[in-house]
Structure formats: structure tokens, C-alpha cells
Amino acid sequence: MLAELKRRFWLHRLRDPDYRFLFDPPPPGEVVSIDCETTGLNTRKDDIVTIAAIRIRGARILTSERFEAIVKPSVRLSPDAIKIHRLREQDVAEGRPIEEALPELLRFIGSRPLVGFYLEFDVAMLNRHMRRLLGIDLPNPQIEVSGTYYELKYGDAPPGTEVDLRFMSLLADLGLPALDQHDATSDALMTAMMHLKLEDLKARGVRIPRTRAKPVHWYGGG
After folding, report:
1. Would you state the pLDDT for residue 91?
2. Sign of the four-CA dihedral 40, 41, 45, 49
3. Residue in 73, 81, 80, 82 with CA at minimum distance from that of residue 47
4. 15-54: per-residue pLDDT in tens?
5. Helix (H, G, I), strand (E, B) or coil at 144
6. Domain-located, residue 38
7. Distance set, CA 117 to CA 15, 171, 191 (Å)
8. Number of domains observed in the structure of the chain
9. Secondary structure of residue 13 in the 3-state scheme
10. In terms of CB atoms within 10 Å, which of 10, 102, 118, 188 comes out highest?
11. Residues 165-176 pLDDT 10s
12. 164, part of any domain
């Protein structure tokens, strides 16, 4: 009920009626895996440098139906961010303005639910521009893969159980291949694979065994 009230509020606030499609019922069985790389981890001050989104239809990841954009940020890249995603100032200098990339992204995702890892961060980065351009936040439902994983592995765990929700730990635990991490397209694809594996386990009522994972060093955001 609360989510529906929020959607009505954003629909009322929408500045451009051409984007009412964001509030349409989504195509049945379709979601979009999304990832952003950024200049840093401050959602108020940092900015987006790359965006990738891949459609999922049923149990199929549609890699041929994807969105990719390099975005010219409004702030400089932090040294820590460059070490992580290996994008330099010269790599993003010729990127597209967010005012051009965001409308195309919105038309690509439509009203489909969004799937992500640490999705709250990516959505917060996008919402800064959404509010400026359209006066609203992204109204799409959100599916956090680490939340689904937590439910299947730790939902019935006793107090004091060690919890590991790192990206690479999830991949390894689910038996999925590790691609080039911190590339937006690769991250979106790996997240899509995690989503489908988790949804399959959930549908079959299969829980994930709680075994101690080997330490994996992971950088937690864009």
C-alpha cells in the first residue's frame, strides 16, 4: 500500500507527461539488471561515469538487449575510484551528458523492476538527476540480490552467525563465473546471473547451506 501511494505521489509530481510510461504495468516476467560506476561513493557529491542495464525475460538474460553509456561526470574522478574501475579522466571526457543518456536509459528500462547489488546506491545516484530533469525518483520496483541471498542463507540463522554479503562471495557461493568486476556491463551481467539462480532456488524451496566462505576483498560501491 505504501509503495502504491508513493507511486501515485511521483506520478503527480512528474513534470513531463512523455514519461508516464514509467508508471505502466511492466511486461510480464521482465526485469532489468542495472549497474553504475561512479566518481566516488558520496551520493550527494559524486557522479555517474558509466551505466549498464540488461533485460531479463523469464529465465533468459537478454545480453543482446542491453543499454551501455559512458557519462561525462560533473566532478573529477577520485583516485580510489580510478583504482577500482580503471576509468581515467581522459576515458570519460568525451562521455555523453547525463541529460542525453538518462532519457535513453528510462526508455530502455520502462516500468520493469530493477535488479541490482547495492542497488540503493545506484538508484540514489540516478535519482539526483531524475529529480532535476523530471521532478521524481525512479518509480520502478527494486529487487536487491543480496537481500534475496540473505533470506535463503541466513534467514533462519541463529544469533551471532557470521554474515558475508560481498559480491564475489555471493558469486562463488552460487557457483557462478566471475567476470571483469567493476565494469558496469560485467557487473550487471553477473548480477543478472545471481538473480536468476536465486529465483530458481527460491521457487524450488532450496536454502543455501551456511558454510564459511574464504575472505574476498571487495569494493562495495560504484
Report:
1. 73
2. positive
3. 73
4. 999 999 999 999 999 999 999 999 988 999 999 999 999 9
5. strand
6. yes
7. 29, 11, 7
8. 1
9. helix
10. 188
11. 999 999 999 999
12. yes
